[in-house]
Give the backbone structure.
Amino acid sequence: MITQKNIIYLDYHSTTPVDPRVAEKVMYYMTNAFGNANSVDHGYGDEAAKAVKQARQQIAELINASPKEIIFTSGATESINLAIQGHINQQNTPAKIIVSPVEHKAVLDTCKVLAKKGLAEIIWLNVNQQAQIDLEHLEKVCSGGASLICVMAANNEVGTIYPVEKIGAIAQKYHIPFLCDASQAVGKIPINFQDWGITYLAISGHKLYAPKGVGALVVKKGHPLEPLIYGGGHEQGLRSGTLNVPGIASLGEACRLRRLEMEADENAIALLRDQLQNLLQAEIPNLLVNGDLNNRLSGNLHISIPDIPNSAIIARVRHQLAISTGAACSSGIVAPSHVLQAMNLGENIIEGALRIGIGKFTTKEEIEKASSAIVSAVKAILSLK
């Protein structure tokens, strides 16, 4: 068995380790209560159905939604596709979709495919060098009418947090449905589905200490969607297929724990993030921190070291640290970050960008070792110039 125990994990935006308490739920519903939640003729099915019902309630309590609004999926990518395609496919005329250019590829690629098919026109929002959208521009384009707004809750690369409540208010003012990809935000910052004018909210389990392969789409009552998957009528007919009970139960448990522990965890994580940032800046004078420094995820530290390629640093630290050059959403394709390009950052800044993600299991000792490893790598590269 390959072990990575000697490598410090700082890629929490890509995926989180499963909380051991959550893992216990997975094991229980895989080996003991393994029934099909739709088997209504015996106790195994009853227990599975009870677990699914409880998970809906736990997720609803974290984000202030109704349990009836929660549709279980395989993760945020499926949720996003269901929301966008399921919404647009009902339109009788080509749709207009208002999109932030710094969205996750799941949003961007889905919208681009619909545009290529002639089913939608994309209206791009303006973003600044902190990856924040221009709310005045949003209001202006909304005043001309649209079928859907797509803006995330928090950016998966630079960590910028978006004013979801204000965006939702604009969406409601112009009666435009609002899709919010909250996969990086749920469990890290407060989200209020009921009161913030959100129509569709995407959640992914593996971003909040639950396993991969489970997520949810929260759908506001009165906003029907056309399904992507047929066969059985599960999940109110929106997502057919036997329910992943171990995954669903674990997602519910993860949400329960985040509701109880989120505030304390995120405060501690922010302190570790700031410690690492300070250590790096003290040793690397030209280091830049990207994103909105006053409004970012606690665990996000997105840095650039101009004129030092990020690949050179990764090559030197990969056996010590798990950090990344960008989002893990493009099947290993090496290409400049579309987020940093949309922020209009210089080519040397983009090429020197590193994404560091800190989480609830990160320790102070790991932060100190990570700083030492990155600084040593930078100094080694500079010595060759």
Summary: The mean pLDDT is 94.
